[in-house]
Each structure stands twice: as C-alpha cells, then as structure tokens.
Write a structure and sequence with these properties.
alpha/beta, Oxidized Rhodanese, domain 1, 5-stranded parallel beta sheet, 4-stranded parallel beta sheet, 10 helices, 9 strands, 26% helix, Rhodanese-like_dom, Rhodanese-like_dom_sf
Amino acid sequence: MSRRLHAFATGSFCNPDVQPQTMSSAHTPSLPAPLISAAELASRLSGVLLFDARFELSQPLAGAAAYAEGHLPGAAYLDLDRHLSTKDSAAALCGGRHPLPTAPAFAHTLGQLGVTPAQAVVIYDTQGGMFAARAWWMLRWLGHREVAVLDGGLKAWQQAGGALESGVVPAPAPVADYPLPADLAMPTIDAATLQATLGRPVLIDARGAERYRGDVEPLDPVAGHIPGALNRPFTQNLGADGRFLPADALRAGFAPLLSGRPAAEVVHQCGSGVTACHNLLAMDVAGLAGSQLYPGSWSEWCSDPARPVARG
C-alpha cells in the first residue's frame, strides 16, 4: 500500500510515507459515523488513522500480542491501560479500575499518537466494539468529529476479503497536544453528584445480568449494582454477526428503559467506564445522542463502603 498511514504502537515513532500532522482538512474524508462498514473503510483506508483497540480484561497483555500477530494494514495499537486510562491519580478524572484521564491528559496522549483535528480516525477490536467504543467516546469527548468504529471489527474486515499484516507498525513523531474545546462535547457525571441525585436520572448498567444482580463478581471486590440502575448488557446492541443492530431496533431496545425521558436525562455506567461507552455508541446510532457517562462506574462506586449497594 503506497500511502499507508502509520500511527502509534508501543511508543516508537516513524512514518516513511505520510506525516499525519501535515494532512489538511481539505484532504480528510467525511466518515460515515459513528459506525463504518468494512467496505467503506476499504475504499478510504489510505485517508484515515487506524487504531486496533483489542484488549482482554483478565489478560492485559493479550490484546497487544494479538495485534502483533495480525492487524488491519497500517493499524496502530491503542491500549486500554496505557492510552485510554491512567494510573496517575493527578491526571485522573475519577477512580475505578480504568480511570478516565482528564481532558488535558488525554489531549497530550492524542498528540503523542499523532492525532490532529483534521484527521479521520477509525477504531476496531474483536470484542463487538467494547473497547473501540471507549476510544470513540473519548475522541468525541474532546470534540473530534471524524471518528468511527468499524462495525463488526476485525472479523467483518476479514469476511469482506480484507488482508491483515503482522508486526508492530512504527509511527510518526508526536504532534502538539490536541486542542481542547471550550466545552467538552460529551457530558460526564461524578460519583458524588450521582449519589446526590439517585432516582432522578435514568441510570443504565451495561454489565452482564449476573454481575448486575450480584450473583457473581469476577473483577471488583463487591457484588451488586447502584440502587435504581436498570440493566442493559452491551451485548444486546449486537446481532448474531457481531455488528450493531439497525437504528430502529436499538431505539426499540432502549425505549422501555427511557420511558419517554430524553437522552440528556440518562446516565450510563458499567464496571469501569468501558462498556458503558458501548451503550452510548448504540444510543448515538439510534439517534438518541446526548446522555452522560459515569466514568468511574461500579468499580469506583463500590470502593466506598458508605455508598449504597443493591442486589437482585
């Protein structure tokens, strides 16, 4: 591929063909958003920054290993722990297992990844979009509009006849920190505000039903859910083929939870603020954009014994 864009992977930087920071908005294609099909991506592959966001919660190094074995041409690796979360409490917006970085901290990360506002970005994974959705939400949070998730992920790409390449893709030198908007584009809510307003917003928990009920808890020290939360496992957003359901089917799925309430009165959470973004993405596909993310989610909530817990 003669004009393949290379992006960040493992911290080294080099691009033999195209310097992303020199791309002008005039050359940036308008992406179908928030989802892009494999066929659409194939037609514009040389015009996007492509990120592979595979990850395994129980094996944090597995995603990077799978990426090195085979990924979409030119794709860089985007790590949930290193790029989409922070362990630095001074740079964190919340607590929990995958603390959301502050906007300035993530703006710096995007600069290190070579991302500028002029560039189109596509993210994929192999888990139905659960990790790609976190990256999509974070880019939208900083106001980046040209970002989409590959519908069906790596499997859809291969089913469409797309080739893979192996190894780690080097990337260009970092650019300036991503410019912060005057107002962040995606609303969030913190634990204290949520606790003070329990029962007012529609609170939707994206975890599996058994974790929501408190039957099992493989990741966090306390089982159960936030009182008043309704359960919509993120997997319900997908069809049997691993692609997102059509917009009308997603609207119908969320309608009983919303009960006529607007999206602005909805708060999404999960275990650590990752799969909640999948429900946010699904609502966007359904034409129901504007709801809030509680980024700390259950892992932050249950870390304070003073906060109430419900089961069943």
